[in-house]
Amino acid sequence: MKLGWDLKTGLKQYLSSWESADDPSPGKFSYGLDIQVWPKLCTFNGSAKYTYTRQWNGAAFVAAPYSNFLYDQVLVEKKDEISFRYESYNSPNIMILKVNPSGLLTRLIWNERSTAWDLVFSVPNGYCGNYGHCGPNSICSLDQTPLCQCLRGLKLKSQNNQTWPRKCERSSDCKSGDQFLKLDDFKAPDLLESLCQFQTNGRRQWLFNVVWGPD
Which Gene Ontology biological process is one annotated for this entry (predicted)? Predict the structure, then answer.
């Protein structure tokens, strides 16, 4: 199975959910390769992102639950094609990747010994797996109550809205002595836009413009 884009013809290869369990017409959820800025795998609810992986690191998609000793991840980037596929490491394996009508992405692998399908992964696995569940400048964690909290140094813009996503803003302006804080064990937000320009006007200089999306 191959997911991706034929850049010459504009053809897109992706998975589509059924409308319902007993209606095989195309549903509202789809799964495929998003090539905005950097390639990443996304589930879409219509045109809105529902789940996503981080970018490709040369061997796999970062923060993807797809790593497995049974198969390898292959990303092809050519002049007229950007595509992604799985390849078996050793003996061929029978696998199924599907999106159900509610947007749940699952991978199943056939177990010859038990003659049954084994679940490899399912996404999303909780509210924190949903794209932008908490909103900008916030972190979602299953180990905290409530699940969504503003980053340290920020506060809720409004206390009136009691449902997430909500907007977090700076609690005060930056001042002398303020520092960047290190955040461990979290999934970085989606990269929506980037610009990197090299200039030579007597000296070398890199210019960066980066726009991050929600978590």
Answer: recognition of pollen
Task: Tell me the CA distances in angstroms from 184 to 61, 147, 188, one per residue in order.
Answer: 19, 17, 10
Sign of CA dihedral 67, 73, 75, 81: negative
Tell me the average pLDDT of the chain: 79
Strands 71-78 and 40-45: unpaired
**Domains of the chain, residue spans:** 2-123, 127-174+189-212
**How long a stretch of residues is the chain?**
215
Distance CA 151, CA 138 (A): 5
DSSP 91-151: S---EEEEE-TTS-EEEEEEETTTTEEEEEEEE--SGGGSTTSS-TTEEE-TTSSSSEEEP
